[in-house]
Design brief:
single chain, alpha/beta, five-stranded mixed sheet, globular
Length: 115
């Protein structure tokens, strides 16, 4: 799976409108998230650094929730956007995590929704 890494608010204007998942390094203010949603109408998920996730405002979360976009904490360590705009996650790791969550008692819908 490819995750588009957005390093700054200025990059939002250049995003492909078909992006479905992004990791934002820029602080996820309500305005930044609104710009992301407007630029990428097919957006399904936004990943933000855990320290910034803890400081998300209620309006920011509401904007995404109304649009059906999931937001979750995560970090991409060592990725250089000057080499590639995308970070690739190994599909095998995703499946492995799904199996672990299932073993913990989560059902398929909960796993897909973010466990």
């Amino acid at each position: 799976m490819k995750i588009r890494v957005v390093s700054s608010r200025d990059e939002i204007a250049q995003l492909n409108p078909n992006e479905r998942m992004v990791h934002t390094v820029a602080p996820p203010t309500a305005l930044v998230l609104l710009e992301l949603i407007n630029r990428c109408p097919k957006l399904k998920a936004v990943e933000v650094h855990p320290s910034r996730f803890q400081r998300l405002s209620t309006p920011s979360i509401c904007i995404l929730k109304v649009q059906g976009v999931k937001i979750f904490p995560g970090f991409i360590q060592g990725h250089r956007t000057d080499r590639s705009e995308y970070y690739t996650v190994d599909d095998g790791l995703i499946l492995q995590k799904a199996v672990e969550l299932q073993a913990e008692g989560f059902d398929s819908e909960e796993i897909v929704a973010g466990g």
